[in-house]
What we know:
This protein is of the alpha/beta class. It has 14 helices and 17 strands. The strands form four sheets. A seven-stranded mixed sheet has the order 9-8-10-11-12-16-17. Strand 10, helix 9 and strand 11 form a beta-alpha-beta unit.
Amino acid sequence: MMAVRFPNWISMKKFLQPKLLVTLCAAIVACTLNLAAHAAPAPIRIGMIDGLSGPFANAGEAVVRNISYAIDRVNARGGVSLPDGKHPLQLSTFDNKLGVEDSLVQFRQLTDQGISFLIEGNSSAVAAALVDAVNKHNQREPDKRVLFLNYSAVDPALTNEKCSFWHFRFDASADMRMQALTEAIKADDKTKRVYIIGQDYSFGRQVAKAAREQLTSKRPDIAIVGDELHPIGKIKDFAPYIAKMKSAGADAVITGNWGNDLTLLVKAAKDAGFKAKFYTFYANSLGAPAAIADAGVGVVRAVAEWHPNAGGTPNSPSDAFYQEYRKRYPQAKDDYMYLRMHVMIEMLAAAIEKAKSADPRAVAYALEGAHYQSAFHSATMRAADHQLIQPLYLMQMQRADSGGIRFDNEGSGYGFRTERFIPAEQTVLPTSCKMQRPAR
């Protein structure tokens, strides 16, 4: 063992004197407190569980870009203000390969790291499993609670019979989106025969159910000539499905498909010369515009809370926001901005500041009834079921050089123009949520 040597002017006897020990300890404590006072406040961590590998990796990567950009905007302002200073937001990602079991494994890793805010959205089946996992975890570990912010999982059950105090959805539900699409079909008297196709999981089944119910109510004269579900992420060639649509004489197709399942579907339609109108949730993203190309001009529609040409006029606040995003991500393959994800991060930051705490329970109460307002978008978080209420745009695909299209999608030469703007109050649907809330 190394011997401790004291300077000549300090003898062991003097060093062990109580007064000197007290002085030295006080100096050490003061120094430690001074360093702590000047240390940067700890980051507020956000854990994203989603598919970052496999057939839908492009969707997960697009989410990472949007969330990272939204977080950077908050941090550029200094971060989130709390009584002890400004805290930066920090994103951690967990790859679930878009599987339910993998998601639960990743959730355990997230909680082991002490992360309080979970975000996910690219699968309603995963979201449902995570809601259950969060509920159980928060009951079991009341001092380590987690708040789940959902940016895209749109199964209506998540804000109805499966609603949870610990879950907030920032996207329109499948029923809300379908309402916008079926209103357009209702107004088109040329549509007579509709084919419904979707992915075989909770979201796809709900889209099909909503399409049948709403079409029957709004246009009982329309014949539903096909209603088919296919394995999610497994189909490499949709030509046989397109052949069925042509054989059935469909003049319109309704689909909630997303990612490669949508891109391959519309590409097969183009290759087969299938001329029906496509009413989609997500045809404006992730390779779909380029795959559809001229076959989609004037006939492909999508619905979302915003799109790049929503501003209406050059140099609008909407245009400026989109162009700032494109400066950050200039490559065409990275061109898809999800406004709802930016709204989610801004509302989270505001709720933390309102609660004066990053405690999930306090933040959840601060989010209930919270209002978001920018120069071109507004939204309110409905307290009854934690469903964000915001406007929707029904948009139609056009060539970028046709006039009135300032921005194309993903460098494809095709963009979308607003066909119908649906104010927030017209998107509202009733909820069956019976929420159990913890004590404040």
